[in-house]
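Hi again,

Forgot to attach this to my earlier email, sorry! This is the prediction with flavin-adenine dinucleotide bound. I've pasted everything inline since the attachment limit keeps bouncing my files.
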Amino acid sequence: MPADSKVQVRTRSMKRYSFLALAREALRRHRGWPGAWRFPDLKPRYRVVIVGGGGHGLATAYYLAKLHGIRDVAVLEKGWLGGGNTGRNTTIVRSNYLLDDNARFYEHSLRLWEGLSRDLNYNVMFSQRGVLNLAHSDSQMDAFARRGNRMRLNGIDAELLDRRAVARYVPLLDTSGNARYPVLGGLLQGWGGVARHDAVAWGFARAADALGVDIVQGCEVVGFRIDGGCVTGVETTRGTIEVERVGLAVAGNTGRVAGFAGLTLPIESHVLQAFVTEPVKPLLHHVVTSGAIHCYVSQTDKGEVLLGGDLDGYNSYAQRGNLPAVEHVAQAAVAMYPPLSRLRVMRSWGGVMDMTMDGSPIIGKTPVENLFIDGGWCYGGFKATPGSGWVFAHTIAHGEPHELNAGFGLERFATGRTLDENGAGPTPNAH
Ligand SMILES: Cc1cc2nc3c(=O)[nH]c(=O)nc-3n(C[C@H](O)[C@H](O)[C@H](O)COP(=O)(O)OP(=O)(O)OC[C@H]3O[C@@H](n4cnc5c(N)ncnc54)[C@H](O)[C@@H]3O)c2cc1C
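Structure tokens for the complex follow:
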């Protein structure tokens, strides 16, 4: 798909955010700021339509316009920007993977995160405060040593900590000999951290809009027009659009939306919850996770302690969960970090996770020509946002995957070349 060299580029003048602009606007009582993006009407025809206005869809549109010169792009969002999982996650960013395909892809994403605020001229508040995975058994320590060595061979930072080092790193954690969940050590990725999730969606939206991308909210895709095995149109609640290529980036709705094109995907949809306590002064300076106990903890910039755990016990498309999952995470958190027992829970919410059969995402072509898919992100798609947009834009522009996402194609489930990071087998809720 050649770049839009002959198409008139509708680059909108975007007011740069800077100290000088802020000072100038302060003198004018902030009356001169333009909207961060437009609210355009839907055109009858686009070269590329991206379904889903979460971080992945918006990042894809941005990189299509910026890196591939394809600006005749619409992002269609049934609700509001970032209202899906992008605005609901616990914001952990890391690249601490064992398998080479995962390690290379997520490390590429981490590198993009490092320059993202500058690239988008939007502060996504990326903070590399370190991500620590706790080990509670000898076999887990062995597995962490193996993963850490593999990460270092792949040029990714990893440090294996013993129990005393963990205690120094996270004084709040009960590492005593009689702890309810004994801690033997941990694997630290110091480059990992967190980012502000809404800002990621808004930053990509603003930058994509400035390059001419039409972002249309409140526009649900309800079907596809397929002629001779090739997608040619997108049916929406605002009318039908002719298209050359379509990219799906609908996270927890991937199975449902792909179904409009007659596809059945190796995906199960589950609810994942998270919740925050009332804000307190800084007490937790890193992200600390325990896969074995299903409890991960960090402190937001607002001071809230942010907690997450395992999937809810049943499949659902509702963006909320039930109390047993919250109870499990809360009891684990209090047992591991006893001072947290004094805090009150302030808010809880849920998101819909598309869990694949091997726990790795699907980014690539589909059996329908010119219909591409970015989905199956399980628990971990936020950290992939820039990397996923980058490779998905390449895949849509060239009609073929980039070498970074070549291993993530749908066909791997037929050929058996799966990317099973946890070795959990085809049991989606175990990944
Ligand atoms: C509680 C929780 C905690 C998580 N924690 C982490 C974490 O710490 N780190 C991490 O890396 N990942 C985490 N994740 C996963 C991460 O949030 C997602 O993988 C990622 O945000 C997916 O981004 P997206 O842009 O693909 O999806 P979304 O942000 O969900 O965007 C998809 C959009 O598609 C829209 N859509 C759906 N159907 C249609 C349609 N028919 N027409 C038009 N639009 C449609 C939706 O409204 C939605 O806005 C977590 C998820 C949850 C729920």
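Residues 100-120 form the longest helix (21 residues). Confidence is low (pLDDT under 50) at residues 5-10.

That should be everything now.

G.
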